[in-house]
Amino acid sequence: MPAEAAQVVVVGGGVVGIAIAAELARDLDDVFLIEARPRLGLGSSTRNSGVIHAGIYYQPGSLKASLCVRGQRMLYDFCAQHDVPYRRTGKLIIAETREELPALEALKKRGDENGVEGLQLVDRKFIRRREPEIEAQCALYSPETGIIEAETLVRTLARIASDRGAHLLTDTPLIGAEFTNGVVTLITPRESVRARTVINSAGLYADVVARMLGFDRHTIYPCRGEYTEVVPSRSHLVQGLVYPLPLPSGHGLGVHFTRTLSGRLLVGPNARYVSGKENYEEGRAEVAEFYEASRRTLPALKLDDLRSSYSGLRARLLPEHDHSFADFVITPDPVRPFVVHAIGIESPGLTSCLSIAASVAGMVHEYLGS
Question: DSSP for 227-285?
């Protein structure tokens, strides 16, 4: 750790934190990142569907909408430049009946307002050409949606950050913070580090870190997403990405089909609030629940085709029975502007990681006058 105050310390080594460190290290010589886990990106960054979202679902004018639309374009360019595996697969958001067409039309209108490119309302014939086994009357087709190998993205961003001189420290949890004359002393079990600016990008623990830094406006409620997987011999049933209409509760996009870059076919996730921020397995849903949620859409699917797969946790800013919209919180601390918080970075956080990094870097440079 530096004897003098570092210009920036990023707390949290998920994909957003690493992207922030890489972006800041372009221009700053002493960027540090501390991560509590033994490896970078072990949390939500790599426990998700790996989808590059287009920006359809989010309220127009929200950070989720603007950062997703901008971030998607940045991410595709980044992947092409740095050989991160990805594919523009396109996505179908389907309606089982014609009565659901107005909901698709409203979703298209929202996507258009957000600047999403190429959205089309399509009929049963179009669906069958792309996905012969899917049963639906109509759909919203998003050609710009894709998939990415998230673990490779994390490793690539970490390599770039290191190559630019950033110091990435794992097994280094933050356990306290002190403020003296505009400098933050971050306390870890190893030692302490002094910083001129701090970025809180601690994912599920961003509210805990925020309270250590004197900012207590937000609480994160962990919401688990569990996945099942179709056995390899049946993974040909779906070729790309097929989603239902979003859940009315707003707590997820519904159980959907995701064909990964490796050819695996995932069915999920569900959305279940849990009591702990490390509760990935306790009381998981039965495989039969995923079958019931998807069998009408994919009639060829059999219960025996499904097996349990991994799970992930979303950093929700609203409790279970609050169905309102919660945007990303990306803001300098109102009392201590040398601390920038990124709280509630759930989906589309992966898609938005580069655009979030650019926004946060702008706040840091504005404070530092650089």
Answer: EEEE-GGGGGG--SEEE-SPPTTSS---SEEEE-TTS-EEEE---EE-S-TT-SSTTPP
